[in-house]
């Protein structure tokens, strides 16, 4: 619920889903997170108060926050890992593909990052995760993709990006995954491609997660479940188009506020002039 410029982080993820054509949003919450549910609920009292104060634009924004979307909530009673959080949504998701968006990651792009991954799943029938190259000195902070050899023939549902009916600009960004490694040491990293918090996955991931043994602290990691999925069903990495801001990191949060502040039609010009006036 931390705001970036003028709306909370999680709203950026919800808006990305809506722009990608998704209309059912499942939010996994925990104890003390009721403010998230309230934010996307109807608030006639607040709308009336703002309208009476002459703040009609703000009242309209509040009214439009969840318009046309259906929200479901499920509770993760213990913080037992991202894989466990995804598993808590199994009954709500059902037997169909779904997207996972980490709420503290914002991606600025012309075409929503989630929609880019959905296009891959629709073309291949296999899941896809967004990746980006990172400096090797930071590689230990991320889950990292081990690409499969381009000519590998024994991969599940083996296919190459070149055989798919996708625009060349999309196909050239696709990378078949052989394995994933969580936070490797620099000299053990299989590539510099980090996983950045956007996933479009088939329902088979739930079975993979249920067969994933808990790791450190009793946590079930989504990375471990996706390793099984890659080996058994196939999985793609996609070098998404756009810019990612990890707002769960202090510097990333500051960068997100600056960049989105500059993009804001109302605040941007004055904010840009202010930044230019700073002396270092």
* Level-1 CATH class name: Alpha Beta
Q: How do the helices and strands follow one another from N- to C-terminus?
A: EEHEHHHEHHEEHEEHEEHHEEHH
How big a fraction of the residues is strand?
15-25%
Structural shape: globular
By CATH, the topology is Spore Coat Polysaccharide Biosynthesis Protein SpsA, Chain A
Write down the domain tally.
1
Rg calc: 20 Å
Give helix % range: 25-40%
CATH architecture classification name: Alpha-Beta Complex
Widest beta sheet: strand line-up: 5-10-7-11-9-8
Give the N-terminus to C-terminus distance in angstroms: 32 Å
- Quantity of strands, as a count: 12
Instruction: Output the CATH homologous superfamily.
Output: Spore Coat Polysaccharide Biosynthesis Protein SpsA, Chain A
The largest sheet is:
6 strands, mixed
- Please mark out the parts with pLDDT under 50 across 5 or more consecutive residues, or reply none: none
What structural class do the secondary elements suggest?
alpha+beta
Question: What is the average of the pLDDT values?
Answer: 87
* Total of helices: 12
What does this structure look like?
The protein contains twelve helices and twelve strands. With 280 residues, the protein is α+β, with helices and mostly antiparallel strands. Helices cover 37% and strands 22% of the residues.
Question: How do the strands and helices of this protein lay out in sequence?
Answer:
Layout: E1 3-4, E2 7-8, H1 9-19, E3 24-29, H2 34-39, H3 44-52, H4 56-64, E4 70-75, H5 82-87, H6 90-93, E5 98-101, E6 105-108, H7 113-124, E7 127-133, E8 143-147, H8 168-171, E9 174-182, E10 193-201, H9 204-210, H10 222-232, E11 235-239, E12 243-246, H11 250-263, H12 268-277
Parallel strand pairs: 3-4, 7-11
Antiparallel strand pairs: 1-2, 5-10, 6-12, 7-10, 8-9, 9-11
């Amino acid at each position: 619920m931390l705001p970036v410029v003028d709306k909370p982080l999680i709203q950026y993820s919800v808006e990305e889903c809506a722009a990608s054509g998704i209309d059912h949003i499942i939010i996994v919450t925990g104890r003390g997170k009721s403010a998230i549910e309230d934010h996307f609920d109807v608030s006639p009292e607040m709308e009336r108060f703002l309208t009476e104060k002459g703040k009609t634009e703000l009242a309209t924004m509040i009214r439009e926050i969840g318009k046309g979307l259906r929200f479901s909530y499920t509770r993760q009673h213990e913080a037992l890992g991202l894989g466990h959080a995804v598993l808590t949504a199994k009954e709500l998701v059902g037997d169909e593909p779904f997207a996972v968006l980490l709420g503290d990651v914002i991606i600025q792009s012309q075409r929503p990052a989630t929609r880019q991954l959905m296009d891959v799943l629709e073309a291949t029938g296999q899941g896809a995760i967004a990746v980006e190259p990172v400096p090797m000195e930071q590689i230990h902070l991320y889950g990292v993709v081990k690409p499969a050899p381009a000519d590998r023939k024994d991969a599940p549902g083996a296919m190459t990006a070149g055989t798919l009916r996708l625009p060349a600009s999309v196909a050239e960004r696709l990378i078949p995954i052989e394995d994933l490694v969580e936070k490797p040491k620099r000299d053990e990293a299989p590539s510099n491609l980090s996983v950045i918090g956007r996933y479009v996955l088939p329902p088979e991931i739930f079975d993979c997660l249920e067969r994933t043994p808990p790791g450190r602290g009793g946590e079930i990691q989504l990375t471990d479940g996706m390793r099984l999925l890659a080996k058994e069903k196939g999985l793609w990495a996609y070098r998404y188009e756009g810019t990612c801001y990890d707002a769960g990191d202090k510097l990333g949060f500051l960068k997100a506020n600056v960049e989105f502040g500059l993009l804001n039609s109302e605040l941007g010009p004055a904010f840009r002039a202010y930044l230019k006036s700073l002396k270092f």
